[in-house]
C-alpha cells in the first residue's frame, strides 16, 4: 500500500512541462502575429475588428491555458484537490478509475496468468503461486495478488478474498478470471490448464481492445489537430501573405482594383 508523506499527500499530478510550453507557445505566437499584423499594417475596419478579436482571443486562451496547467492535483486520504485548495472530488464519491491502474491490469494480466500456470506446473498450489507472482513482480497486479494472499493468511476464504479483488478492481477480465478459478476448484479441474486457457483468452480480448482503441484514435486526434497543429500551420503559411492580402482587401473596400 502507498504511504502518505508528512503532509498526508499520497500522490501529486502536474502537467508535462514540454507539452505545456508547446500548447501555450502556439496560442501566444499565433495571437501575437495576428495582433502585430493588424496594428502595424491596419486593414479595412471590418478586417481590423476581426483580427483584433481573433488575436485577443488567442492571447486569452494562452493565458487561461498557462494558469490551468500551473495547478497541481494532490491525492489525500479524504479527497482529490488542486493546489489552490479546491476539492475536486471526495474519495467516497469516486466509484472507479478507468485510466492508469485498470489499463495496466488489463495489459499485464495475461502474463500473470502464464506465470501462475508455470508455478502450478512446477507443483505449487494456487495460493503459493499467487504469493510467488506477487513477490516476483511489481505493479498493480502484483499488489492485488499480494493483498489476496494477505487476506487469506488472516483467515478469509479464498473465494471471499478473490471476489473482493474483483469487486475492488471492477475490471471484466479480472472478474472472469476469478469466476473461472473458483469454478475450477468447485469442479475439481486442473488449475494449470485453466490458467493457460484463460491467458490465451485474455490475450485475444486484449488484441480486440487494442484494435478498438486504434479505430478511435482519428476521432480523438481531431480536436488537438484543429486547436494546436492547424493554427500553427496557418500562422506559418499565411503569415507572410497577410500584408499582401491586406492590400488586396483595402483596394476592394475602396473600389480601387487598379495596379
Question: How far is it from the N-terminal to the C-terminal residue, by CA?
Answer: 77 Å
Beta-strand fraction estimate: 5-15%
Helical fraction: over 70%
CATH architecture designation of the largest domain = Up-down Bundle
Order of helices and strands: EHHEEEHHHHHHH
Q: What CATH first level of the largest domain would be assigned?
A: Mainly Alpha
Structural class: alpha+beta
Number of helices: 9
Q: Domains counted in the coordinates: how many?
A: 2
Strand arrangement in the largest pleated sheet = 1-2-3-4
**Would you identify the regions where 5 or more consecutive residues have pLDDT less than 50?**
none
Number of strands: 4
Radius of gyration: 29 Å
For the largest beta-sheet, the strand count, sense and barrel status come to: 4 strands, antiparallel
Return the CATH topology of the largest domain: Receptor-associated Protein
Shape: elongated
Amino acid at each position: 500500500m502507498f504511504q502518505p508523506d508528512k503532509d498526508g499527500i499520497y500522490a501529486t499530478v502536474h502537467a508535462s512541462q514540454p507539452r505545456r510550453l508547446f500548447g501555450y507557445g502556439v496560442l501566444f505566437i499565433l495571437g501575437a502575429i495576428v495582433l502585430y499584423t493588424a496594428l502595424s499594417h491596419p486593414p479595412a475596419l471590418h478586417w481590423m475588428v476581426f483580427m483584433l478579436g481573433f488575436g485577443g482571443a488567442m492571447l486569452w486562451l494562452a493565458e487561461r491555458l498557462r494558469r490551468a496547467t500551473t495547478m497541481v492535483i494532490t491525492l489525500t486520504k479524504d479527497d482529490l484537490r488542486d493546489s489552490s485548495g479546491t476539492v475536486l472530488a471526495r474519495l467516497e464519491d469516486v466509484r472507479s478509475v478507468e485510466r492508469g491502474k485498470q489499463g495496466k491490469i488489463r495489459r499485464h494480466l495475461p502474463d500473470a496468468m502464464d506465470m501462475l500456470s508455470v508455478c502450478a506446473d512446477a507443483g505449487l498450489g494456487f495460493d503459493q503461486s499467487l504469493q510467488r507472482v506477487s513477490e516476483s513482480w511489481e505493479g498493480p497486479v502484483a499488489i492485488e495478488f499480494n493483498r489476496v494472499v494477505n487476506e487469506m493468511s488472516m483467515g478469509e476464504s479464498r473465494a471471499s478474498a478473490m471476489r473482493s479483488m474483483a469487486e475492488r478492481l471492477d475490471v471484466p477480465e479480472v472478474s472472469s478470471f476469478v469466476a473461472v478459478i473458483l469454478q475450477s476448484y468447485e469442479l475439481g479441474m486442473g488449475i494449470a490448464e485453466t490458467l493457460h486457457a484463460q491467458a490465451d483468452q485474455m490475450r485475444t480480448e486484449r488484441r480486440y481492445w487494442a484494435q478498438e482503441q486504434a479505430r478511435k484514435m482519428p476521432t480523438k486526434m481531431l480536436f488537438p489537430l484543429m486547436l494546436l497543429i492547424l493554427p500553427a500551420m496557418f500562422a506559418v503559411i499565411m503569415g507572410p501573405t497577410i500584408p499582401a492580402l491586406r492590400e488586396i482587401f483595402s483596394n476592394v473596400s475602396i473600389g480601387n482594383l487598379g495596379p
